[in-house]
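Could you please consider the sequence and fold appended to this message?
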Amino acid sequence: MAHVLGSRQTMVGDRRDDASDASDALDRRVEFKVTGCRASPVAAAPKAPPGAVYARRMRMRVAIMAGLSSALAAACAAPVCAGDAKGAQGPGLDAIVQAARVDAARRGAVSPEVFETVSAERVTWSDGSLGCPQPDRMYTQALVPGYRVRLRGPAGVLDYHASQRGALVLCPMGQAIDPVPGQSRI
């Protein structure tokens, strides 16, 4: 077919705007070719085989699922839940202390009663790391209300940081960042 200056190539697909033409949605295009004042033939754009469109969509879905899976795995690996959440407030300080004792006992293969509470306080953390940032991670840059619990056991003092909603993290000594000053100690 010969085209003249600024002529339009026909669209790939059957030119309907309904769902029956959806398989061609990725390959739909309009081509213009301007070649001076002479007529010139323009080759039709090859239509992708039906299997190629399906394969491209499946590769996209697999990539999205892989990203979601890794994000979910990272989120599930970080905090230890401190009991049942009580609405937006979460568990109180007593529940956080108990959860810290249970976690310390599980890590040390001893009874929770072995651990003595050195300090337990309500604090405000400077960001979402709860005062225990991990390398190569990004955290919410907002004040986070929570708790700090220090327990003494057979292996020494353990420093637990928690959010008000109950996310509990054991922070290795030397890595902990102090909370925002001005909070009451219990």
